[in-house]
Amino acid sequence: MKEIRIDENAANQRFDRFCRKYFKQYPEVSLTEIYRRIRKGDIRVNGKKTSEKYQIQLGDMIVIKDFVLKQLSPITKEEKIAVLGIEKIKKLIIYEDENWLVFDKPSGIPMHGGTKNIETLCMNNYLDKYIRETTSLDQKQTSPVSPPPRRGRSEKAPLGGELPRQVGAEGSYTEEEGYKRHKSGGEYTFKPSFCYRLDKDTSGVLIAAKNYQALQYLNALIRERKTEKEYLTVVGGMTPDEQYIDIPLEKSFDKKFGRGITQVSKNGKPAQTAFTTLQSKKHHILGNISLLAVKIYTGRMHQIRVHLAHIGYPVLGDIIYGNPILNRKLYKDLKINRQILHCKQYSFKDLDGKQITFTTKMPEDITKVM
Length: 370
Prior knowledge:
This protein has eleven helices and 15 strands. By secondary structure, it is of the alpha+beta class. The longest helix is centred in the middle third of the chain and has 12 residues, at 123-134.
């Protein structure tokens, strides 16, 4: 029987939400199976069968029956993590403090495992490995540990806005941050988590929260649209100097790709995108192409890709919404096999109210085509 004591990092969330987070380490477990186990009482709170809607409280004990765990095998994930080199992960980190761990995500790596990515390393593996390798869990139970050196870049956004401050703050890394185990023993109930997703083939700024307060804070800013994101992309065609796109978008399911997609629809949700053209040229293989700095004011799935394709400027390498002829040339002649979309910059007001901006360098594939 597995017992997990709820501390302040895990309290005040729905029972089913906690279970979904916990079982992420078992990619073979479906959401349907998690809910089935909750309803049958195989996963309980304080020894009692509990509704999935229950708000778990500080001090609650989550109990998972032995036979449930015997059916699971997290070995696949542990083996994936074992092959990761810590130095390789460190090269991807552009900033770290007591609240945030910021990656320059490479293209080709999914955010998390699942039925399609069970054998594939994902960004959650990178995050988990880094935290485990660089943080002494036992030491954090007794004394503060100095935080790793802080890294960061800041600059004025090409589309304007306030010049943000250089990131960095004094402080110590105590047991209140990162992994935390309840004093009475048991498992760590909070793991540093990514605050948003980037598509598998999208690269760039990816922020993880190292404590529950930071995670809640940035998630709230995202919901309230109080963050600023700037992307770089290369599209087919000669684009105007700048353009604002205000076209509603709607999710649907595409049988051809076997997945959810986004399409333009008058019945869809509001979606706004703006871009500034940084460079246009006639490429000797691809023809007319343009490098854009893009800002989005809503966060619809595939928003940039759908909006740009709709107005006649498809993102190069986009197999769902893009131009197949350009995509074949991109792969065959230039050996670029991904949608050229990069989250260059992410900005928001930190917990102390000061503006911070995380910035990455231009990817090699963009430099190659431009």
